[in-house]
Automatic annotation (TrEMBL):
Residues 9-429 form the Aldehyde dehydrogenase domain. GO terms for molecular function: aldehyde dehydrogenase (NAD+) activity. PANTHER family: ALDEHYDE DEHYDROGENASE (PTHR43570), ALDEHYDE DEHYDROGENASE TYPE III, ISOFORM Q (PTHR43570:SF16). This is Aldehyde dehydrogenase. GO terms for biological process: aldehyde metabolic process. The lineage of its organism: Eukaryota, Metazoa, Spiralia, Lophotrochozoa, Annelida. The keyword Lyase does not apply. Keywords: Membrane, NAD, Oxidoreductase, Transmembrane, Transmembrane helix. The active site is at 212, 246. Belongs to the aldehyde dehydrogenase family.
Length: 457
């Protein structure tokens, strides 16, 4: 990719944007329709690429990637007309006779940097918002999920307007070079350290950003909880995609007397989902590459506490079994950085107040989960903490409701998207006021000279 002149790619996109064609309802609908066709006509190829990159099973590929993206496209198509309408605002005495409204305008050229763990969803869902809002787009899928990245590079130009959408593949040097250019919006999904690099690059041009980052998302299990149900939902949220989910429960906080019971139930859930040997299960994903196997290995071998379940690593197969660490302490390695893999540390806490204090002593997480029969406990946990999202008595499901914004707070990110929030993300809300040239007599009051009579009324 070294011979691509990014400056001329961005200039070309800006030139296209300036023709005004992406602003029309027709262009936006045509592109969204084409994106829907791409998803419908290439489901098998997309599923295969996900299988190669992450050993993602068809059910998870359809649920979390292809259908998930389809739903975003369909929502945008169904609501686009309404979203694009001017918003009439309340007026005051001085503007009673004027036409006052908010016009939603595209920003221009958007750079979208996708992520590898859900490489279809996390690349195409921001794209849906950018197109719906009428922008030109430079899209860079994550090089880590290379099979999916190459497929997107091949498919997108076949379906979408090539003058207004460019796909560029590449790694750190290409991302670095791309970030030297000037955009009207940057949408990045990935880790917090690179998020800071993106933010600094954007600051040079005062470019607004969305940063969809990570962090350690806690899960508190209260004493009054149905552990059979909780363990199923927690195990599903943790071990889907082998734990490589940004909103996966990263660690569990539980009362000491419940820890062993919870571990027993989690083991049952793991067995129900993936059988005696999860390596043989079609439904258990692999770690994306050997760099990440090495990263997650640290938590299995030296994460802290003791291995209560799993701990099997096959480096060649990029396999790490569902692993539970018990009696983990806040100073242990597993509690210092995001796990982003199939290892679940359990840290005992005396009560919910200790859980709240612990959560508040850390950076604000992307998600927080509470399992409790007692609604008051759940409400107290929500009111006393902060996170991008929170769910009571389940995991991950918040991401599938498009009427909820998806994004972080503090170190877990800036901005949010999904559904209408995606459209708003790539949109400028332009304040518009249209007056008549009539009735000039009433304006005399605001023109100098500012006599006492004018200022004291
Ligand atoms: P990564 O290492 O693949 O990096 C992401 C992108 O940054 C890649 O395109 C890469 O080329 C680029 N990059 C890496 N180093 C760079 C550098 N020094 N300069 C410029 N560009 C650079 O991504 P990752 O960190 O493995 O992704 C996992 C993280 O992403 C986790 O923290 C996870 O929680 C987070 N994540 C967040 C969301 C969300 O929606 N909030 C979704 C998925 C993943």
């Amino acid at each position: 990719m070294a011979d691509v002149n990014y400056n001329s790619v961005v200039s070309g996109l800006r030139k296209e944007f300036n023709t005004g064609k992406t602003k029309t309802f027709r262009w936006r609908m045509d592109q969204l329709t084409a994106l829907l066709r791409l998803l419908d006509e290439n489901t098998d190829a997309l599923n295969n690429a996900l299988k190669q990159d992450l050993n993602k099973c068809v059910a998870e590929a359809v649920l979390f990637e292809v259908n998930y993206s389809r739903n975003e496209v369909i929502t945008a198509m169904s609501n686009l007309k309404e979203w694009m309408e001017p918003e009439w605002v309340k007026k005051n005495l001085f503007t009673m006779m004027d036409t006052c409204f908010i016009k939603r305008e595209p920003l221009g050229v958007a750079l979208i940097l996708g992520a590898w763990n859900y490489p279809i969803q996390l690349t195409l869902c921001p794209l849906v918002g950018a197109i719906a809002a009428g922008n030109c787009v430079l899209l860079k899928p994550s090089e880590v999920s290379m099979n999916t990245a190459l497929l997107l590079e091949k498919l997108l130009p076949k379906y979408l307007d090539n003058d207004c959408l460019k796909v560029i593949n590449g790694g750190i040097p290409e991302t670095t070079a791309l970030l030297n250019e000037r955009y009207d919006y940057i949408f990045y999904t990935g880790n917090t350290n690179v998020g800071k690099i993106v933010y600094q690059a954007a600051a040079k041009h005062l470019t607004p950003v969305t940063l969809e980052l990570g962090g350690k998302s806690p899960c508190y299990i209260d004493k009054e909880t149905d552990l059979d149900v909780a363990s199923n939902r927690l195990a599903w949220g943790k071990w889907a995609n082998a734990g490589q989910t940004c909103i996966a429960p990263d660690y569990v906080l539980v009362r000491p007397e419940l820890q062993d019971k919870l571990i027993g139930k989690l083991k049952e859930s793991i067995k129900k989902f993936f059988g005696d040997d999860p390596k043989q299960s079609n439904d258990f994903a692999r770690i994306v590459n050997s760099r990440h196997v090495d990263r997650v290995r640290k938590f299995v071998e030296n994460g802290g506490g003791s291995v209560a379940h799993g701990g099997v690593i096959d480096e060649k197969a990029r396999y790490i079994s569902p692993t539970i660490l018990k009696d983990v302490k806040d100073t242990d390695a597993a509690m210092q950085e995001e796990i982003f893999g199939p290892v679940l540390p359990i840290m005992p806490v005396q009560n919910e107040q200790e859980a709240i204090n612990f959560i508040n002593s850390r950076e604000k997480p992307l998600a927080m989960y509470v399992f409790a029969n007692d609604k008051k406990v759940a409400e107290r946990m929500i009111n006393a903490t902060s996170s991008g999202s929170c769910v009571v008595n389940d995991c991950l499901v918040q991401g599938a409701l498009e009427t909820l914004p998806f994004g972080g707070v503090g170190h877990s990110g800036i901005g949010a998207y999904h559904g209408k929030f995606s459209f708003e993300t790539f949109t400028h809300k332009r304040a518009c006021m249209m007056k008549e040239l009539k009735m000039e007599a009433v304006n005399v009051i605001r023109y100098p000279p500012y006599t006492e009579k004018k200022t004291n009324w």
